[in-house]
Amino acid sequence: MRIDDQLHIDTPEGARLTLSLAGPLPRALAYGIDLAIRGLALALVAIPLMLFGRGGMGLYLVLLFLMEWFYPVLFEALWQGRTPGKRMMGLAVVHGNGAPLGFNGSLVRNLLRTADLFPMFYLTGFVVMLITRRAQRLGDLAADTLVIHTPPARPARPHQDGDSEAPDWPLSRDDQLVLLAFTDRGARLSAERQEELAALAYPELAPTAARAKLQRVARHVLGGA
Amino acid sequence: MRQSQFEQRYRPQWERLETSLAALEARRRPNAAALTDFTADYQSLCHQLALARERGYSLALQDYLNDLMLRAHRQLYRYRTPLLPGLVAFFTGGFPRAVRHQWRWHLVSTLCFVLSAGLVWAMILHDPELVHTVVGPQQVAELEEMYHPDLRDVSGRDRQDDVMMFGYYIYNNIGIAFRTFAGGLLLGVGALVAMLFNGSFFGAAAGHLTLAGAAQPFFTFVIAHGAPELIAIFLAGGAGLRMGWAVLAPGSWRRVDALRRAATECLPVMYGVFALLVLAAFIEAFWSSRELAPQIKYGVGAACWALLVLYLLFAGRQRRRQGGPHGSE
Known about the structure:
The structure holds two protein chains of two kinds.
Chain A: E1 6-10, E2 16-21, H1 24-50, H2 53-78, H3 84-89, E3 91-95, H4 103-111, H5 113-117, H6 123-131, H7 138-143, E4 145-149, H8 173-186, H9 191-201, H10 207-222
Antiparallel strand pairs in A: 1-2, 2-4, 3-4
Chain B: H1 3-25, H2 32-54, H3 59-76, H4 83-101, H5 103-126, H6 131-134, H7 137-147, H8 159-184, H9 189-211, H10 215-248, H11 255-286, H12 294-314
Helix pairs in contact in B: 1-2, 1-3, 2-3, 4-11, 4-12, 5-9, 5-10, 8-9, 8-10, 8-11, 9-10, 10-11, 10-12
């Protein structure tokens, strides 16, 4: 059993989508950012509206209503499932099958926000998120939506140059994955740690030599030179 | 095939897909040629991702392809329906049909409101002091100030006040309706409490003002906008109860599925509630505050009620088909 927070969805094309679900903390932060943006926008609008007296007050109340109920709906429906706060936190709302969020789905999940708020500070929503398998609050359950991390645009890994060497054992698919993970993550490990890991593969060699050899083998698997 | 050969071979295709994705995500329309390639590119991308996983290519490449596919999936399955025909169909049939489909819940919610209002009203006529058990002293004073012929001051009211009250009604009333609906999700309790409370408050206000001799200003004020406003609140309560019941007694469905089904059924009702309350806010701010003869105001108010009830009962019914096994829906 996997205990990470990834969700795998098989699309009709026969491909498998991997979504990573967002937990309560990034969602709460995104909500906080949105709250600040809404407050700021309202304050900015309130100042000129004050010049118009009670008529301006009426317009302000209409705006207050729109901000409270339709700010998330409009942004999520028209902006790829993201409010400004969610965009900053790298989150997005999608339907349970990975399809993009439409107006209806967004309206359901945001109208039911009040139930999640009950009795205060999103307590109900928080508990429900912990219980459900896909970290959904009540509004998400009713609208069948998920909040996911949107991956930052990553360029494909740059090609590594250098000499390569065929492995001296028959390579299984799992071995291949381990080797590739070693090259992909190597840059983030210290030289000592890399040597330590390489020594597991070639216990008979000196650590530096083992590391160099392992890197050459990995380049071979990757198809370099 | 080695990974580098694989990447070399398909990279132009991925880059083409990325270009059209960037355009689609920025809501620009890519040129027609790029769009014809889009689905084909997406399909082969799915294939290549499966291959990359099966052959154990580097995780970085798999991630890259997965991200690309996720973005393409989100663009491909985006659907937009034309707005205007949808709106017309909604108001000529969809909304009243959605209401009639759940008529039991709306009846329950209406009864909660009407019975609690009637009860409190009768109690206050019987014992005027009871008004203080329902309404706070501050609110009693405000009610009297608003409606009592001797206390209220209508001379200063102008357009500015109309706009301000319009904003207030939008903010307050639609908020109440939405919260009533959402409260229904808490096993129906939230919606039930909201209906009983609002009913009691209305009964208390009506009873107290009747005794205070302000019945005519009060009823001439509320009758016209009361039609859309009260009916919208009844409908929001009914939709909330429907949601709560889906959680309480899902029948042969899983609870989550019952909830989703209920949400789908309730959504058109809530769109309608929103529209009705905007209408009510217009009437309340710009018509109800006019000082006109009571007969005119009662007449217009009665017409509002009759039209709205007839609309909800009869609009969008399909004529019974000849000889069909199912008659009207």
